[in-house]
TrEMBL record:
Record's keyword terms, sorted: Amino-acid biosynthesis, Cytoplasm, NADP, Oxidoreductase, Proline biosynthesis
Binding site for NADP(+): 81-84
Principal EC category: oxidoreductase
UniProt KW Amino-acid biosynthesis keyword: yes
Main location, first listed in the record: cytoplasm
Catalytic activity: L-proline + NAD(+) = (S)-1-pyrroline-5-carboxylate + NADH + 2 H(+); L-proline + NADP(+) = (S)-1-pyrroline-5-carboxylate + NADPH + 2 H(+)
Lineage: Bacteria, Bacillati, Bacillota, Bacilli, Bacillales
Any Gene Ontology CC annotation: cytoplasm
InterPro entries assigned to the protein according to its UniProt record, in alphabetical order: 6-PGluconate_DH-like_C_sf (IPR008927), NAD(P)-bd_dom_sf (IPR036291), P5C_Rdtase_cat_N (IPR028939), P5CR_dimer (IPR029036), Pyrroline-COOH_reductase (IPR000304)
One Pfam family cited in the UniProt record for this chain: P5CR_dimer
The species this protein was found in: Fontibacillus solani
Protein name, per record: Pyrroline-5-carboxylate reductase
Function as written in the Swiss-Prot or TrEMBL entry: Catalyzes the reduction of 1-pyrroline-5-carboxylate (PCA) to L-proline.
Gene symbol of the encoding locus: proC
Length: 285
């Protein structure tokens, strides 16, 4: 990514320094979309965590009131990366500090743009996002929705941020909870299946390294096959399922356990939980 993208982003303050914030910071730096000196990260009290982030990425960090005031007021973009339960206190405090022209990017699951503006006490321009942790290696999938206060420049800044770490889907805000269920939390479902396949391989006599490498390559190959061929996953599955063969036997076990409906139920429960978390914050106002 060239320097014009870096200049257009200005300074970015991550208000919250957890795993998702780190994933995006790692991706931004790795793809040269933002230099470490452009990025600051804040948390409430975990100095050990901030020290690690500074040493690992070279970003600015702080947790004192002085640091918080400096980084938040000077940032062009403020990324809300705190947990939903901490949002009310943090955003109520942040509102009076906002400067004209500052853009808010929210990573907080479940909390709507209108609720964010209510907590901030102002109709600030807001981009609501739902990335996933694969952003840290440039293979993320992020959903974005924008408030009516955002300008074309704001939209381009946010697209630049998240396109640098993966693909982006701009969606109506009412679809954000289902997107959370599909791609926001989706990597965890895949890892869960990978864990089970590795365990089965070890139980069958493979070494842990063999089971891991074979499973990871299998998942990578399957995903790449879909991307490169454009084929429907059902067709690709049928192509390798011979009648009365070993693959069919395995799939019958999954079907007997209601695999499809179980996965769908997990996605929809994630959607529901995302909505519930947002409602809890809204009702506490």
């Amino acid at each position: 990514m060239n320097s014009t993208h870096q200049a257009s982003l200005g300074s970015i303050c991550f208000y919250g320094a957890g795993s998702m914030a780190e994933a995006i910071v790692r991706g931004l730096i790795h793809k040269s979309v933002a230099a470490p000196k452009q990025i600051s990260m804040l948390n409430r009290s975990n100095q050990e965590r901030l020290t690690y982030l500074t040493q690992q990425y070279g970003v600015l960090t702080g947790n004192s009131e002085q640091d918080k005031n400096k980084y938040l007021t000077e940032a062009s973009i403020i990324v809300l990366a705190m947990k939903p339960k901490d949002a009310k206190e943090a955003l109520t405090e942040l509102g009076p500090k906002l400067q004209e022209g500052q853009l808010i990017v929210s990573l907080i699951a479940g909390i709507s743009i209108s609720t964010l503006q209510q907590l901030l006490g102002t109709n600030a321009p807001i981009a609501r996002s739902m990335p996933n942790t694969s952003s840290s290696i440039g293979l993320g999938a992020t959903g974005l929705s924008f408030s009516e206060e955002t300008t074309d420049d704001h939209v381009q800044q946010v697209l630049s941020m998240f396109q640098s770490v993966g693909i982006v889907s701009v969606i109506p805000e009412e679809q954000m909870d289902i997107l959370t269920g599909v791609s926001g939390s989706g990597p965890a479902y895949i890892y869960y299946m990978i864990e089970a396949m590795i365990e089965a391989g070890i139980e069958g006599g493979l070494t842990p390294d063999q089971a891991r490498n074979l499973t990871v390559q299998t998942v990578l190959g399957a995903a790449s096959m879909m991307l490169e061929t454009g084929e429907d996953p059902a067709k690709l599955r049928k192509d390798i399922t011979s009648p009365n063969g070993s693959t069919q036997a395995a799939l019958e076990v999954l079907a007997d356990k209601d695999f499809t409906n179980t996965v769908k139920a997990a996605v929809h429960r994630c959607k529901e939980r995302s909505f519930e978390m947002g409602q809890a914050v809204k009702e506490a106002l």
